[in-house]
């Protein structure tokens, strides 16, 4: 997959990340799922990892504490093996932001999840093609 990480970010994945950065997490998930389904190569798991992150934030925004924790655990399978940068996306930062989000969600607990305010943006390290 490292060579695939050097390739440009596909349009559907870019759309998903734009939606993520606007806080439209479920719509981000949908676009990233389309990118994942359209890609036969192993790089597809990169899109799966980002879509799982979008679902974590969607669950948090809907105050679904258990759902957020469950999907966070699942997301680690797809995000941890990735290099720090893939297709211009700062994966290291996304992982760190997601880890911080779960720490904060656990600190708040299910009863106070509405107070959560650590909604990050996915960072691009190069211009999009």
Q: Major beta sheet, specifics?
A: 2 strands, antiparallel
Number of helices: 6
Q: Write down the CATH topology.
A: Hyaluronidase domain-like
Compute the separation of the termini in Å: 19 Å
- The SS-based structural class is mainly alpha
Low-confidence stretches: none
Instruction: Give the overall shape, derived from the CA principal axes.
Output: globular
CATH architecture type: Orthogonal Bundle
Radius of gyration: 14 Å
- Can you count the beta strands? 2
Average pLDDT over all residues: 94
Please indicate the percent range of residues in DSSP E strands (runs of 2 or more): under 5%
**Widest beta sheet: strand line-up:** 1-2
The helicity comes to 55-70%
Total count of domains: 1
Task: Describe the protein in words.
- α2 packs parallel to α4 and α5 (65-79) packs antiparallel against α6 (91-108).
- The mean pLDDT is 94.
- This protein has one domain (2-115): TTHA0068-like (Hyaluronidase domain-like), CATH 1.10.3450.
- The chain contains six helices and two strands.
- With 129 residues, the chain is mainly alpha-helical.
Short description:
It contains six helices and two strands; from the N terminus they run H-H-H-H-H-E-E-H.
Present the secondary structure layout.
Layout: H1 2-5, H2 11-21, H3 25-38, H4 44-61, H5 65-79, E1 85-86, E2 89-90, H6 91-108
Antiparallel strand pairs: 1-2
Task: Pick out its properties.
129 residues; mainly alpha; Hyaluronidase domain-like; two-stranded antiparallel sheet; 6 helices; 2 strands; globular
């Amino acid at each position: 997959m490292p060579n695939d990480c050097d390739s440009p970010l596909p349009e559907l994945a870019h759309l998903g990340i734009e939606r993520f950065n606007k806080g439209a997490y479920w719509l981000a998930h949908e676009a990233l799922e389309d990118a994942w389904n359209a890609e036969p190569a192993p790089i597809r798991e990169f899109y799966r990892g980002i879509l799982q992150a979008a679902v974590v934030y969607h669950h948090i925004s809907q105050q679904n504490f258990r759902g957020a924790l469950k999907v966070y655990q699942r997301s680690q399978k797809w995000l941890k093996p990735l290099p720090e940068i893939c297709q211009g996306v700062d994966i290291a930062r996304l992982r760190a932001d997601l880890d911080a989000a779960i720490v904060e969600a656990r600190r708040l607990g299910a009863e106070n999840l509405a107070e959560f305010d650590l909604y990050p943006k996915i960072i691009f390290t190069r211009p999009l093609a």
